[in-house]
Amino acid sequence: MAEHHHDHGHHHNHHGTGNIKVAFFLNLAFTIIEIIGGLFTNSMAILSDALHDLGDSISLGLSWYFQKVSQKHKDKKYSYGYKRFSLVGALVNSVILFVGSIFILTETIPRIYNPQTPDALGMIWLAVLGVIINGAAVFRLKKGESINEKVVSLHLLEDVLGWVAVLIGAIVMYFYDLPIIDPLLSLGIACFILFNVFKNLKSVFKIIMQGVPQDTNQKKIKSFLEDLDGVENIHDLHIWSMDGQYNVLTVHIVTQENLQMEALVPLKQKIHKELKTYGINHATLEFETKDEKCVLEDC
Average pLDDT, whole number, for the chain? Predict the structure, then answer.
């Protein structure tokens, strides 16, 4: 007998959509300013950070859009709902950042051997503006409660630190004739972007391949289920994630006695309650008797 459970308490923070929307428009407006500013100041470091901010703008826009989409309930097309659509956003963002980083590197590496003098004063003003605007976006999202807001807030905090580095580099170049600092900063930012792109792609690939989520302990869950009173053994345990936050579990549970549906209720309730503490949002349990033969091939 199979029992299906959905955690109706799990839902997205609607107020968080508004915070992400504000951060998106702040970031997008400044990205346009710094692309123009980077061209005028002849600074590859500014243009590299513009690429970083463009990636963040895309991330914020997609987070805003997919947070709204993911609130849609399951339907005939998607029986689990729309949560996994956020992976599409992560893939699109990664491709854009990868292509952009390669372009920045092809422009930056020749400048290391033949440095061009950027407008250091212009870089200083842009960097100050970058710290203020990105800092405002971080402050706005830091007040949010949703996981999505907190993740994006940490991401934007990296931007603030990047702009602090550009600001320090620009101040040094303003007082000293060291134009090589600009391409070196650009190289560092581009490598940092590529590192995060590959890290994100690794996480997305694991979710697509239905790997066990990092924040769940399959061994502990298995032990918890096997140690329950009335349980003979378990098999066919599967744990995966819809979007990196919403985790799903299915399992076959063999009972020690041939219990009727009514007698299983306390056991089911206890399992569902405990699974929430292990980070499981959606669980499907199938109960079997000791003499029952499992019909699945991988039992």
Answer: 80
The model's pTM: 0.70
Q: At what angle do helices 44-69 and 120-142 cross, to 10 degrees?
A: 20
- Are residues 204 and 126 part of one domain? yes
pLDDT value at residue 100: 81
Q: How far apart are CA 27 and CA 248, in angstroms?
A: 34
Q: Are residues 271 and 192 in the same domain?
A: no
Verify that 109 and 245 share a domain, yes or no: no
Residue 227 DSSP code: T
Q: Which amino acid is at 64?
A: W
Separation of alpha carbons 236 and 113, rounded Å = 59
pLDDT tens-digit series, residues 25-40:
877 888 898 889 888 8
**Residue 266: partners with Cβ closer than 8 Å, 6 or more residues away:** none
Partners of 187 in the beta sheet? none
Rounded CA gap, 229 and 231, in Å?
Answer: 6
3-state helix, strand, coil in the chain (%, to 5): 65, 10, 25
In this structure, the answer to whether residues 46 and 189 fall within a common structural domain is yes
